[in-house]
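Late entry, written up from scratch paper. The run itself happened at the end of the previous shift, but nothing got recorded in the book at the time, so transcribing now.
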Amino acid sequence: MNVDRKHRKDKWGRLQRRHMRIRKKVVGTEERPRLMVRKTLKHLYAVVVDDSAGQGGHTLVSLTTNKRDGVANKNFRNIESAKKLGKEVAEALKEKGIETVVFDRGGYRYHGVVKALCDAVREGGIKV
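Output as recorded:
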């Protein structure tokens, strides 16, 4: 049985439906792009997208905690790594000349690593 992910009644289907509800309201523009967060079991991903740039949008900045730095089998999905990633995102946005973004939590609850990443971007001087 081939069922679309958003119609599944498991954890991933619920996450997909929540994200689609958010995406109906949160749209990135050229002046104010969308900062999207994605979590996996070991890593965090932050992507800044301009949705007004045609079919599917245009990625402006893409950063991740998936940099190995000589450390094997370490979990980089913690608050400390989220703060570091948020500061890197803020620096990259400043280099591109972007001062404000719209935050897309990706269907995740706004606490823990998601909140830490957003707060670090704010501390970096970007208006969220």
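The chain has a mean pLDDT of 85.
(Scratch paper discarded after transcription.)
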